[in-house]
């Protein structure tokens, strides 16, 4: 384990390292097709890819317009190559996006579970603090303890959000 940077606790550093290790394991365990699609998508989204295409297609166009002999005066072959390439590249991008969306959904579910657990635990702590305040004869009326003690039901929150979006 590395030392914690200033302002970051050792526990947070450990959690970050565990999450990074988990991501490395997930990448290593991904099917070959997913890893290949990610590599192709990564390369095609780079400036090297853009420069190679500028050189290749620019050279092809220049050779056809000004070189001799003209080997494709109608540029049909160039258009066909570009079209087939676009079909495959868009497929690779979609494969990568689908995998990333699935990972994002998993992380969102984890966030929801952790938030609900934290909310539940805080409700229980609020109840305990209210009982301590009563025992010490401290007036807790300055805050709405009933609202703090109440557990949030995620289904009701989702229903309310859906209802609000439809309104």
Quick synopsis:
The protein is mostly helical and 167 residues long.
Structural class: mainly alpha
- Distance, first to last CA: 51 Å
Strand content: under 5%
Poorly predicted ranges (pLDDT <50, ≥5 residues)?
Answer: none
Total number of β-strand segments? 0
User: What is the radius of gyration?
Assistant: 29 Å
In N-to-C order, the SSE pattern is HHHHHH
**Shape estimate:** elongated
Share of residues in helices: over 70%
Main beta sheet, described? none
Task: Describe this protein's structure.
Helix 2 crosses helix 4 (76-135). The protein has six helices and no strands. It has helices at 10-29, 32-44, 47-66, 76-135, 145-149, 154-166. It starts with 9 loop residues before the first helix and ends with a helix. Helix content is 78%, strand content 0%. The chain is mostly helical and 167 residues long. It is elongated.
Attribute tags:
mainly alpha
